[in-house]
């Protein structure tokens, strides 16, 4: 009992001390004398000392700061609650953001983009974390009590209109004036008839893929601009094929070995330049050709746990400073190689009318894929761009492929290797059987399957 008495006396002194300090603070406030507000405040201060008899009552009084603030009406409290309700808060935030900015959701990158309202000449920029924080702080200054998660939820919602860069570009094109510009564009690179006709077909395939007219088929052909020296403007021409409005969707930063990144580029970019194609290892060529034939892809976008099935947008083009490019004759139909013999003029390209022409041709039913005959013609023309491997060189030095109507040696692969090593000791060192077999096929050697295994028909050359 004595301890309880001591505790109550200590609490009473503490409460009196607090009440005294509050009274001193209130004395400095200028209030109309005799007003109801003064009386109500004085009444509350007078009561403060009487609560010292019970600790629980003091705790309750101290947990209610509104007891010492200006009283608000129930109507005002209800109005504040309505303004801060989640639905109303979202509406206020959306109205505030849309009043200040133009916002959109880029379907290719999966990002929100913005630009200040009324600045039509300005480019849309990706909305970064810093921009989101700035938007949140600006909303606070405007009296909107939102959190950063409210801003993020709004930006990631369907309140932002979808934007597809390529569909939007083609929708805004002027009508085609009827003048053909595709042949002249191709002739900036070369006057070769195969190149001019092949480039026209390839540009139609590019536009069809951008417009979503692929019909389940990918643009699997890539032009390759080849020259023995640098400085002719090959890469500049490739880059300038895209109109300025779509220049952000061009890339020459490619790692063929990174399959996941390559697939992401297929759904985000419009044109991928395989710059310095001759530096891509031969072992990567099969994987590259597989990527070039992909149509729809399953890609995981940034900040998402699930994968999305997205249509392919990108087409391929390439440049090279070496003529030794291709290793697989059957796969060479995927590459439209052209010799560049003069500097390429990439200025004053009439993008709007070029793509308006492509659009008009496609909507008119023009074919945008290569036929088997066209692919065979490309394959024949690419003979000048094959890589000559050591195994093929060794064979060509001592033998040739037999013609169908002449007598020839019929040998197995080990027997042929033994013949080569007898004629030229040390040859084929480090070359495997599979690589040598491919070299013989490339050289046009006929292979026949017999009961004794595969036999190759060859004719020895006179030494």
TrEMBL record:
Span of domain Virulence-associated protein E-like: 175-384
Name the record gives this protein: Virulence-associated protein E
PANTHER family assigned: SLR0554 PROTEIN (PTHR34985)
SUPFAM superfamilies xref list: P-loop containing nucleoside triphosphate hydrolases
DUF3874 domain span: 388-458
Pfam families from the UniProt entry: DUF3874, VapE-like_dom
InterPro entries reported for this sequence: DUF3874, P-loop_NTPase, VapE-like_dom
Lineage: Bacteria, Pseudomonadati, Bacteroidota, Bacteroidia, Bacteroidales
